Amino acid sequence: MNRYKQRVSLVMAAVLLPCAVACGGGKGDSGAVSVQQPVTGIDWRVDSVTVGGTTRHAPASARLRIEEDGSASGNLGCNHFSARATVHGDRITIGGLRTTRMACGEERMAFERALARTLTTGTLTAEREAAALTLTDGDGDRVHLSRGPSG
């Protein structure tokens, strides 16, 4: 009987150990953008921008949408914009913005400048978790977004 228990224990260890190693104990979803969690074709509401450690909350009109064809558009908080965008995995690059030229209050314009600069300073790293998206530039500045009502 003792030999039988030892044999069963060895067989169970041989079966379960590879599963435990393959399954791991870490978090299953890193949050990185993937085919399962696209960023394109979604209306993103801009919630806030954090630049140099200072967070500015977005006006209700601030939006971003990136299409699969590489076009991007939205609202910076006062002015509408369009641009070209490239998405490769969790890396997003947004080219120079073409914007309308409306004037708004100083607070909105300061937010708009911070958002425009963060979106266009270079390659952004996208981290997607459920209905939230964070874009981080090379300086650590971040744009926090959430799914808009029509996305």
Describe this structure in words.
About 22% of the residues have low confidence. Strand 3 and strand 4 form a beta hairpin. The protein is α+β, with helices and mostly antiparallel strands and 151 residues long. The chain has two helices and ten strands. The chain has a domain of 104 residues: Lipocalin. 25% of the residues lie in helices and 36% in strands. The chain has an eight-stranded antiparallel beta barrel. 26% of the residues are buried.
Tally of extended strands? 10
CATH architecture of the domain at 44-147: Beta Barrel
Helix-and-strand structural type? alpha+beta
Oligomerization state: single chain
Strand content: 35-45%
Q: What can be said about this structure in brief?
A:
With 151 residues, the chain is of the alpha+beta class. The protein has helices spanning 2-23, 106-120, and strands at 44-51, 54-57, 63-66, 71-75, 80-88, 91-94, 98-99, 123-129, 132-136, 142-147.
Spell out the key features of this protein.
151 residues; alpha+beta; Lipocalin; 10 strands; 36% strand; globular; DUF306 domain-containing protein; signal; HslJ-like_sf; DUF306_Meta_HslJ
